[in-house]
Amino acid sequence: MIVIQLFIKMKLFIFFSFFVLHAYISVFNPNDLLAQEDTGDYPKEILTNGIISVLIFLPDSTNGYYRGARFDWGGIIGQVNYKSHTYFQEWKGYNETLNYGIRDVHKGTGTCEEFRIPLGYDNPDTGNKFLKIGVGILEKKEDPYFFYTKYNILDLGRWEVTKGENWMQFIHTIKTDFGYAYTYTKRIGLIVGKPMLKVTHVLENKGDKKIISNTYCHNFIRLDNVEVGEGYYAEFPVIVKPESKFHDAALFSVTKKTHLSFLQYNYFNILLHS
């Protein structure tokens, strides 16, 4: 039995440090990273620094892995391989894509990211359109905005993808006729000589209206394809405790002041505070 450690650090103008996730799992025979994943014919690239390998899905309106109206299309990290171990898994419920127009939002893997607040949805001056950062211009519905809703994509904007020796960069540019415009840059890079992955974001407002939104990384974590549950625990740098009861979503056992063991898990949407 071994212990796997995964360090995740993301940046949106400032760094956010998260907890270290551990799991006790058995060693398995490694295969090629692409062979391990059901990647289909989706446009993709692999980055490696000789220590870790990272599978990245590319934005593509025809054949892309993700073509929905919820998650940021730029550089979805589908899998990470380190010392013959894998860290992410596709949610089987997120397993459909539709033709151009209305797309399925319930598909995702790895480090799917989302800008939660839509731009212009509640403003009647934008007509029947609103803007979702990292996706494009979408068509409103009569109901209030809800991220699970399948919205018709009217304009995807323009994606520019470049690749270096151990990095990839995704630039999304879009301009609306209702006051919003931006240039959004995401860069995925591997740290030389270390098993570390760094994702940075820069969002530049190019329009007349203020951009107010927030973003998060979903982290579809499943180590070596082992379901989250007994054997997993989260370690934090400070003392933490659950903010509320989670019913059947998750059960915890506090083994140490900074450790939470997962006894049961259905949906990883856990709020914790120190």
Short synopsis of the structure:
The protein is an all-beta fold. The chain has 1 helix and 22 strands.
Account of the 3D structure:
With 274 residues, the protein is mostly beta strands. It has 2 domains: 2-226, no CATH class; 227-274, no CATH class. It has 1 helix and 22 strands. The protein has one helix spanning 33-36, and strands at 2-6, 9-12, 15-17, 20-25, 44-48, 52-57, 76-82, 85-86, 113-115, 129-132, 136-139, 153-155, 158-163, 167-175, 181-190, 197-205, 215-217, 232-235, 241-242, 250-256, 259-265, 272-273. Strand 5 (44-48) and strand 6 form a beta hairpin. 30% of the residues are buried. The model is unreliable at 1-37, 93-103 and 266-274 (pLDDT under 50).
